[in-house]
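Problem 12. The chain below contains 142 residues. Write out its predicted structure in token notation.
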Amino acid sequence: MQANTARDNLAESHPCPLDVVRAVYRAYAARDLAAIQALYHLDCEIYQSDLLPWGGEHRGHAGLQQFFIRLTSTIDTEIVDEQLFEAGDRVVSIGRTRGKALATGRQFELPAVHVYTVREGTIRRYEAYVDTPAMLSACATD
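Solution.
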């Protein structure tokens, strides 16, 4: 039986989506914006609820940078992965985000789901979902 060499060559030329997402989590933990940007496609899309101070739809590397600057100026957070799995060109992370709201000093630990679309070795779309009312409560300055 002959192997599908075109598909095999494509798979060999790009890291698997799980490896891309694992790499971006390492870059997030290191707060390494250059490494983060290198893993995202130039025309990437980032989405998180616009109820959050850093949320909304962000596009491209400029939007990615704006998203992370707003995020890191509002909260100090770390992602705790509990489950990470691949579903076609999507990678789903189910876990928790824990940290502190910078304006209030309030600690939080909340459920979080991240959905990445990864194609040809880069992240094309990132969607982040957290317990929004609980996060807003942690960030509220009353």
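Discussion. The helical segments are 5-13, 17-30, 33-39, 60-74, 132-139. Students who got a different answer should revisit the alignment rule from Section 12.3.
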